[in-house]
Amino acid sequence: MSHKKSRHKPDWKVDIAVDENDERTRAVAELRYKGNVLTGVGQTRLDPDDHFPDAVAGELAVARALSDLTRQLFAATASDIEAVTGEAVSVR
Question: What CATH number has the domain spanning 12-85?
Answer without folding.
Answer: 3.30.160.240
